[in-house]
Amino acid sequence: MNIITQRLLHLHRCEEVTWSTLQLLLQIDPTLSSCYQLTPSQLHQKLQFQIPLEKIQSIYKNLQSVTIASMLEKYKSQNIQCITRFDSSYPSALKQIYNPPWVLYVKGNRDILLNNQMLAIVGTRTPTKYGVKITDYFVSSLVNHGWTTVSGLAKGIDARVHDTTIKQNGNTIAVLGSGFNHLYPRENLQLANEIIKENILLSEYPPERKPNRWQFPARNRIISGLSLGTIVIEAKAKSGSLITANLALEQNREVFAVPGPVDSVYSDGTNLLIQEGAKLALTPEDVLIEFQTQLPSETY
């Protein structure tokens, strides 16, 4: 690992260093050496006062609290792998999205990221029996055709996606909205531990970052960004799953929605997506045909 990558990781762990802060620092100094060689006042001037001096001072204090060596040793002891935007192993699909993560923290089998055949599957946290049944049906078929599933480890549909994928001996990626040491929701800790045995837990947040509400919509851009398409299975009219679907559209990715009963609030979101132009997904073949992959007809 070169010194620039080490500095990037060191800065990235500071809570004061936002995506745009890091972009500014890289623009004025691609080696990131300024943060280690200049005083806060000097860096403030070099940045043309675009970052408040108080914030720079706070960043310096944070940097001085943990050495690069101790940080890297801690990551190693926790089996945390780091992939930066400048690494060849950084997923090419993510490079194309708005504000691609500077760093991906990974636990598990990072080789799964090399598979470009990824599909996001998301939905409500409180699925009906219909939603669970449809999730199992779609996941089983897609996995059997070599697709990696991507979801957010939330309770409900997300957790079912990961669990069914594992049971089908497929590959799955769980994208977190927090750091690994503050996994949310805690009720899915056992599932998370199962995932890292052969699959991937992934986060753009350093291990000690606690969950905050704004981090989950930001997380959704990674779920859709890794994937060629997003499938929504059961969602209310106002749902995080619809945020993921809209992000997929912004990223020029396919969006599919599974219809549901018109008298179910858990189908309001998916039916609305279809009404607004999302592709209707009655069977996995409706999804696979978009990517030139044929699926034998099945019943469920």
UniProtKB/TrEMBL annotation:
| A biological-process GO annotation | DNA-mediated transformation
| Highest taxon above the source species | Bacteria
Q: Which residues form the Smf/DprA SLOG domain?
A: 82-291
SUPFAM superfamilies given in the database record: MCP/YpsA-like (SSF102405)
Q: Which Pfam families match?
A: DNA_processg_A
Protein family per UniProt: Belongs to the DprA/Smf family.
Protein name, as recorded = DNA-protecting protein DprA
Q: Which organism is it from?
A: Bacillus mesophilus
| Lineage start | Bacteria, Bacillati, Bacillota, Bacilli, Bacillales
Q: Which gene encodes it?
A: dprA
